[in-house]
Specification:
Radius of gyration: 18 Å
Shape: globular
Strand content: 5-15%
Number of strands: 7
CATH architecture: 3-Layer(aba) Sandwich
Largest sheet: 7 strands, parallel
Strand order of the largest sheet: 3-2-1-4-5-6-7
CATH class: Alpha Beta
Helix content: 40-55%
């Protein structure tokens, strides 16, 4: 039996992209109810109608994960209407590309608040319930950018390094205190959802297919895995950075695999 069966699942940034797919696949695996948080009200209503018309139990809330009061209010409403959240997908994220010297102060603040602070705020809103209940799953969608430097995404990388460090530390805390709460850190390379439009994928690291990576994420939850890195080159990145001298790693990543040139053609989605 799937761990999703008869559970309440919440997905932030769940009105599009892999958030949409993770919500749908959770329902297909037997989730009792799906709560979708997003800032796009139009997309939220469209997804709610689609899922409801398919016979699924779903509710939506327009929530800004950058705002602690917004998150706390939405969490209280969720708790009152549907009970505790059993499985949380911390998926909301934004992309900020370009040279750091060209980034505005608002770009820096927004990227860090959504990708780093936001996931902590959301998890904090539900973790007491999970600990009290002795079980729960928190899935944090970080990035391969949290494992290696990459010019052209300084701020984004900083937010994902923060997300990765927090997520891994939270997992250790939950395990050390025997809470029963499981934490999965997901670190994918570029996913073909449009957020990284224009990017030149590194050698041997093609864009990840959204359907396939979300299947792997949900299977990782079911198997109780603690981290998921995709594709294979991302899996060995921490080892390479650990054993190779800095200049040699930079040569391999930059000149051979062309990781450091991948953002040079970045355009992104107009609405992201």
């Amino acid at each position: 039996m799937s761990v999703f069966n008869n559970k309440n699942v919440l997905v932030t940034g769940g009105a599009s992209g892999i958030g949409y797919l993770m919500g749908l696949k959770s329902l297909q695996r037997g989730a009792r109810h799906l709560i979708i948080w997003d800032i796009d009200e139009k997309a939220l209503n469209e997804v709610k109608k689609e899922f409801s018309d398919s016979g699924y139990s779903v509710s939506v809330q327009q929530v800004d994960v950058r705002n602690a009061d917004s998150v706390k209010d939405a969490a209280n409403r969720t708790r009152e209407e549907h009970g505790s959240v059993n499985i949380l997908f911390n998926n909301a994220g934004v992309v900020s590309g370009g040279n750091f010297a060209d980034q505005s102060y608002s770009d820096i603040e927004n990227t860090m608040n959504v990708n780093a602070t936001g996931i902590m705020i959301v998890a904090r809103a539900f973790i007491d319930d999970m600990i009290s209940g002795g079980e729960g799953n928190i899935i944090n969608i970080a990035s391969a950018a949290g494992l290696t430097p990459n010019p052209g995404m300084c701020v984004y990388a900083a937010s994902k390094w923060a997300a990765t460090g927090w997520s891994e530390s939270l997992r250790l805390e939950m395990d050390k205190n025997k809470t029963g709460v499981k934490v999965l850190t997901v670190m994918p390379s570029y996913i073909d959802t449009g957020m990284f439009k224009g990017v030149s994928p590194p050698l041997m690291m093609p864009f990840l297919d959204p359907e396939k990576i979300t299947d792997k994420i949900l299977r990782s939850v079911e198997k109780g895995k603690v981290r998921l890195r995709e594709p294979w080159l991302v899996k060995i990145t921490p080892f390479l950075r650990g054993v190779l001298p800095g200049p040699l790693y930079d040569f391999i990543a930059g000149k051979i695999f062309r990781v450091y040139d991948s953002m040079s053609t970045f355009k992104g989605r107009p609405d992201v």
